[in-house]
Design a protein that fits this description.
Largest sheet: 6 strands, antiparallel
Radius of gyration: 16 Å
Structural class: alpha+beta
Number of strands: 6
Strand content: 25-35%
Helix content: 10-25%
Order of helices and strands: EEEEHHEE
Shape: globular
Distance between the termini: 17 Å
Length: 130
């Protein structure tokens, strides 16, 4: 495993069941989820040029990636960003953030709604990240 990249654990997973992935090795001292943030719907007019389906991924704790040629509105990003670190971790049962995966852009004309999806669970070394 190369430094800071983490170990892939399983295939696309959807929401976690809290179980360890098949074939998970014991190296690493924490587990995080990779995330995909997708424009789920636009209930107003698209002011920033985004469309339903536009997305970005957050991988290996802090690697934000856009599809080739894609863009993501900085204001929409700013509204979802504070929640992503929590969505990368296992959350207590009953925690509202474990149950809610939709976030809104602050532009009242646009009413853009994003969906945060967990895509992969990884075992990582915290020493590689700090």
């Amino acid at each position: 495993m190369s430094e800071g990249t983490g170990e892939d654990i399983g295939e696309d997973i959807g929401e976690s069941t809290g179980e360890r992935g098949v074939g998970m090795e014991d190296d690493g001292d924490m587990e995080l989820y990779d995330l995909r943030v997708v424009v789920d719907r636009i209930e107003g007019r698209s002011v920033c040029g985004m469309e339903v389906g536009d997305c970005f991924t957050l991988e290996r704790s802090a690697h934000l990636r856009l599809p080739d040629g894609g863009h993501f509105c900085v204001y929409a990003l700013a509204s979802v960003l504070p929640f992503l670190a929590a969505k990368q971790r296992d959350l207590a049962q009953g925690d509202w953030l474990a149950q809610d995966s939709h976030f809104s852009c602050p532009d009242p004309e646009e009413r853009l709604v994003m969906r945060v999806e967990r895509t992969r669970r990884r075992r990582m070394n915290s020493a590689d990240l700090t």
